[in-house]
Design a protein that fits this description.
Largest sheet: 7 strands, antiparallel
Helix content: 10-25%
CATH topology: Jelly Rolls
Radius of gyration: 15 Å
Structural class: alpha+beta
Order of helices and strands: EHEEHEEEEEEE
Number of domains: 1
Strand order of the largest sheet: 1-8-5-10-4-3-2
Strand content: 35-45%
CATH class: Mainly Beta
Number of helices: 2
Shape: globular
CATH superfamily: q2cbj1_9rhob like domain
Length: 177
């Protein structure tokens, strides 16, 4: 089941995170796998990534980012029509896209019992395509879906940038039992 949520967090909350991401984020270039890592003048990047948690915190001094992600995570689960148990966050990754960024279709995980949350920190004309449906990048909105579902991030065309959060978690979904 794919769920879409709106107004999960305030604009001030999201802007505080963006401010810290700009100053403290250790972003790395995400290379489009189809281009085999070649970013030439005629190719786009697939956005920038800042992973703060993958089974455990990856860097020191990321407590603010992981705590903020956990608040967003809790908001999504509280508003979900699905019931999850045995929940374990597996990855927290912050995304930055500019006008030249063009994501690649992918799966976050290839097995059952993993779920992805894509949360928008800013409002832009970019967004996320999940299972062939475009979800516009509206500040405070999120999409929850099984991690094996094909999806990709979409950079903005009119706005200069887009900030988003990707959370992957493992859980038993009681609705699917």
């Amino acid at each position: 089941m794919i769920e879409h949520f709106k107004n999960l967090q305030s604009e001030n909350f999201n802007q505080a995170i963006i401010g810290r991401l700009v100053k403290e984020g250790l972003f790395k270039l995400s290379i489009d796998e189809q281009d085999h890592g070649d970013v030439g003048e005629d190719r786009s990047d697939a956005g920038l990534l800042f992973t703060t948690f993958h089974e455990k915190p990856w860097h020191k001094d990321v407590e603010f980012f992981n705590s903020s992600a956990e608040l967003i995570f809790d908001s999504v689960l509280r508003n979900s029509q699905q019931t999850f148990t045995n929940i374990k966050i597996v990855r927290i990754m912050w995304n930055y896209y500019n006008r030249a960024s063009s994501g690649v279709y992918h799966q976050d995980m290839y097995v059952d019992n993993y779920y992805s949350i894509l949360y928008n920190l800013s409002t832009t004309d970019g967004g996320t395509i999940v299972d062939n449906t475009f979800y516009e990048g509206e500040q405070g909105s999120a999409v929850l879906f099984p991690s094996a579902v094909i999806h990709k991030g979409v950079g903005p065309t009119k706005f200069k940038h887009r900030f988003a959060l990707n959370i992957v978690f493992e859980a038993v979904n009681l609705e699917e039992q």
